[in-house]
Amino acid sequence: MEVEVGALLTPKGVFENARLRLRGEGSLYAETALVPGFSDAHAHPQVVDYGGGRWGNAYEWMAGRKLRVDEAALRADMELSSRLAAAALLRELLDGVTMVAMVGRGEANFAAYRRLPVKPRVALLPTILESSRGWLNAWDAIDLLITLSSLDGAVPVGLFVHSLGHVSRESLRAAYEASKTLEVPFALHLSEGVDELPQLVEALGLREGEDSGVIAVHCISGSGYKRYGIRVVHCPLSNLTLYGRTLSDVSEVDALGSDWPLLLGSALAAYRAAVEVHGVERAPLLLERATVGGYRLYGLEWRGDAAFFDEPLERVAEGSALPRFVAVRGELAVAEGELVGLGKTRADVEREIRELIKLAEERYPAS
Ligand SMILES: [Zn+2]
């Protein structure tokens, strides 16, 4: 399939009147194309409720939040957890998100990926959390990581430590060491309202000027992450929702995350929010981080991934345009705004998400 593009934005720059080739027959014209599409560097596809309220930091939120849904019981339901993850992936795909890094219930996320005929590329990072029931410790997570990578070598896996305050030092170090040995991504929530950089540096023995390889999500407090080679994932929507503020130094940002794709929307919604918060003059930098940024963090190939728009580059750069076609691995996954092979539209997927959240609330009410 021949694709003619008015303005093509790639990690190598903008090309006018460019041509692309996809698998399949026919031809199409797009005014603007992003190669790759948007990337979501941090998503919890089982979060259906955050408990409301405004908080000073993540620890206050975790301790004080009043959830309507019993999270542990929901995560234990593999079928529903996997349907939630599948719905989140489809919402992302329709928004032109061609890569998603998912934390949460690893097996359910893997099952969601496997069951979908069309999907973004994914990275799977099972969550390590020891302070509440229903989660994994570092050793269980490492076991799961090895199982998942042997089931399907094509799906990259990594480790996600919930946060410094919710795992033991021993587990934190074990997970970090394992990620180095296995050469897989290592990520965690960091500095979500309190500066935790000094604590992380001390716990992992990080040295200034060396590449730690750590992927840190949020970092709305503190500064100097770059000095330790820490990659920062910016989640403007959940930060604004929980704390009414977000990080201010855009130059620290390496990628964007939706955080709660079922509640707040896809990585495109996160990008739109970032442009609103940081100003349209930062859009060129933010768009680079919001597209190839996530691929770089998780070491994923981006060739063949694209989002095609019927609107000019300026509108796409504002985050206000929706793609009409989306390709993953050189093949169309969305055509004319519909999911290929599933025939579902954005309205269908939105309805499905509302129904699944309602089901989770009814089946697993918090006691
Ligand atoms: Zn998160």
Task: Report what the structure shows.
By secondary structure, this protein is α/β, with parallel strands linked by helices. It has a single domain, classed as Alpha-Beta Barrel (TIM Barrel). 38% of the residues lie in helices and 23% in strands. It is built from 13 helices and 15 strands. The strands form 2 sheets. It has an 8-stranded parallel beta sheet. A 7-stranded mixed beta sheet has the order 2-1-3-12-13-14-15. Strand 10 (231-234), helix 8 (236-243) and strand 11 form a beta-alpha-beta unit. It starts with a strand and ends with a helix. The model has no long low-confidence stretch (mean pLDDT 95). The structure holds zinc ion.
Strand-helix topology:
Blueprint: E1 2-10, E2 13-21, E3 27-34, E4 38-43, H1 58-64, H2 71-76, H3 78-94, E5 97-104, H4 106-115, E6 121-128, H5 138-151, E7 159-161, H6 169-182, E8 186-190, H7 197-204, E9 214-218, E10 231-234, H8 236-243, E11 253-256, H9 261-264, H10 267-278, H11 283-298, E12 306-309, H12 313-318, E13 325-328, E14 331-335, E15 338-339, H13 346-363
Parallel strand pairs: 1-3, 4-5, 5-6, 6-7, 7-8, 8-9, 9-10, 10-11
Antiparallel strand pairs: 1-2, 3-12, 12-13, 13-14, 14-15
Helix pairs in contact: 3-4, 3-13, 5-6, 10-11
The structure holds zinc ion (ZN).
Short description:
It is built from 13 helices and 15 strands. With 367 residues, it is α/β, with parallel strands linked by helices. The strands form 2 sheets. Strands 4-5-6-7-8-9-10-11 form an 8-stranded parallel beta sheet. The chain has a 7-stranded mixed beta sheet with strand order 2-1-3-12-13-14-15.
